[in-house]
Amino acid sequence: MLEWNLAADPQQNPHTPGGCTECLGAVTLAPGDAVTRNPAYYITAHASKFVRPGSVRIASTLPAGLPNVAFKTPAGRTVLVVLNEGAGPQAFAVRSQGRVLAATLAAGAVGTYVW
Fold first, then answer.
1. Contact 91, 103 (CB under 8 A)
2. Ranges under pLDDT 70 in the chain
3. Rounded to whole angstroms, how far apart are CA atoms 10 and 75?
4. Helices in the chain by DSSP H: which ranges?
């Protein structure tokens, strides 16, 4: 998983010609060994805790305000990551193998479900 760049300087360099000039790297490296952890750092850290090397994306959907992606791990587990992009809580259902899980995510929250 790679957001935009693993590391960038305070001007978001390096980037390729025509590439994003405002995209933050996972970390920003500034003079004097200063390191700033950006949102991509935490996104990558969170997802990699559950989506281990060798995992395969098995599904993703874009329902209104609830983008999500599911993976099958090498251990045979399913990992589902859901983001609530809405301004308020959103309820949804996860259906898998004849079972249903009802869940609600607060505004701006990310939920990770493993089974």
1. yes
2. 1-4, 21
3. 40
4. 39-50
- CA 77 to centroid of chain Cα atoms: 18
- Distance (Å, whole) CA 70 – CA 60: 6
Instruction: Decide if 25 contacts 44 (C-beta within 8 A).
Output: no
49: Cβ contacts below 8 Å, ≥ 6 apart: none
Q: What is the pLDDT of residues 59-92, one digit of tens each?
A: 998 888 999 999 999 999 999 999 999 999 999 9
Tell me if 26 sits within 8 A of 5, measured CB to CB. Answer: yes
Please report the pLDDT score of residue 60 as a whole number: 93
Q: What is the pLDDT of residue 1?
A: 44
- Nearest Cα neighbor of 90 from 102, 108, 109, 104 is 104
Contact assessment for residue 23 and residue 15, using Cβ atoms and an 8 Å cutoff? yes
Rounded Cα distance between 44 and 5, Å, is 11
The length of the chain is: 115
